[in-house]
Amino acid sequence: MKKITLWALSAMTMLAGCSASEVSSLVEEAQASDLISGAVYKISPYSDETRSMFVRNASFDEGTEIVAWTDTKVNAQRWRLTKDPTGVYFYLTNVYTGKSVHIQSPVSLGARLRQYGKENDYTYKWTITKAEQVGPDCYYISPSSLASGERLYLEIGGGEDGTNIQSYIKRTGDQADKQIWKLERVQEAPNKFTSVMRDEIVRSWKAQYYKKSQNNAGYTLSDAERLNNASHQWQDAEMFEIVLDAYETTQDPSYKEMFHQLYINFVDENQKNWLYNPFNDDITWMVIACVRAYLLFGTQEYLDVAKENFDQMYARALMLPEGVLRWCEKEAERDKTNSCINCPAMVASCYLAQATGDENYYEKAKNLYEKQSIYLYESSTGMVYDCVTLTSLSPWKWASTYNQGTFLGASLMLYQHYKDALYKTNAQMTARYTIEHFSDDNGILNAPDERSDNDRRGFKGILMRYLRSYINIMDDTQYLPWMEASALQAYNNRNSKGIIWTVWEEKSAENFVYKASDKDVRYSNDPWGTSTAVSIAVNLPLIQK
Q1: Of 99, 122, 225, 236, which one has the greatest count of Cβ atoms within 10 A?
Q2: Which long-range contacts (CB under 8 A, 24 or more apart) does 208-216 make?
Q3: Ordered structural domains, the chain, with CATH
Q4: What value does the mean pLDDT take over residues 107-135?
Q5: CA–CA separation, 17 vs 485, rounded Å?
Q6: Is the pTM of the predicted complex or chain greater than 0.85?
């Protein structure tokens, strides 16, 4: 046994709240451990190695519970073991959050685990001793403090994800395995979003949702029940745009073929003229996808379809004398204009100008921008309003990630063409408002209004491509750390299939069910709400550090 001075023994006794004889016993057990201080480990219950110790929802918040969850190979489920200054105890620090495992104080039977940032008292110190009767890499984990002179051991509760980890006296018989943990050393991964993570997210999403359509016309990202539902055409269009984003940022030719197969299926289901759809924004989203595809791949059909549909949509939707576009052709909606039609129409018009060389499309975009700024934009803050009824002129002052994104995109495109400083200023204000308004206390994207509503689930995926444009066009990287932090949060909350629900601040369930306040949302066959993580993965500029 290594020599320990009386001074060190006295200090350990004070910190651990134990008698000298108890500390001596703990030192003997700690010395038997072959764990490496500073190394990173996966900590799994011996009774179920498919799960591991996890900071609930990968949260950075002080006091977050430490639970057991199906292992997804992310840093929020990895722990750095570091010996305390005495060399007797270990700190267990989460690799993702940087915070350490703490046991409730006063320590008692059933005491649970939480994470906190400090490491200066006995509630953070752990003895880890071999469970040699079981096998290699198997251990008991005990808080350094004792309850009534009796050692406590960490044990797992039930068998479901999210079950608590708590302390209890030594168990025997059939219950003994609950207190045995397997510590497997793993390679340390930095908290940096990488191309490997990006490709994992896209590959998992594609494997889950990209299926051969029943009519054999192509491939679809839509559930079969939705293929003929016009109200979901825009969701398909925006997921097609994510495929284009992936091509733009990776130059992987497989995305070119993927888009073409999706286009074939879309046209087979919806034909080439979409004016039967009363929602003008639905038409415009697919116009953007098609004209972007033309600019990337040169396929003339994409441009022809985009131009025909945009021109007809614009002619029927233009509201005079106001100069904005009608959102929907249904009688009850004919006096209403929305940002979700004006802003995408500006983007589509700019793309058409680039594709055709026709300056009139830029003029259309410029005119729409001027009117949008009057009715649905707050230039002093950068907030984009949602909609307004022109007979009352009282806008709904609700901001959403997708309206912020498309107005940002239009500002950037018009600035590139006209070089007017107004567009640059608006782009800067809009980006700033978006980051400030849609961030939680940890500086990570949070859009609580967009969680469970069907259309809103995919909104922030649209924002991501325009933030990428902002960073690249403005050569302004100040929001890059925000994007990366949000991408890492999403990645750390993936499920074991690699699928990430749009609520990035919560762990994606293994059964593909999101427990919303009003109803359960099932997304095993619905890619829309999981496409947002794919969007940030492919749109985040990867800068080598």
Answers
A1: 236
A2: 208/497, 208/499, 208/524, 208/527, 208/530, 209/525, 209/527, 209/530, 210/258, 213/265, 213/268, 215/265, 215/268, 215/269
A3: 40-185 (2.80.10.50), 192-271+439-469+478-545 (no CATH), 277-437 (1.50.10.20)
A4: 89
A5: 40
A6: yes
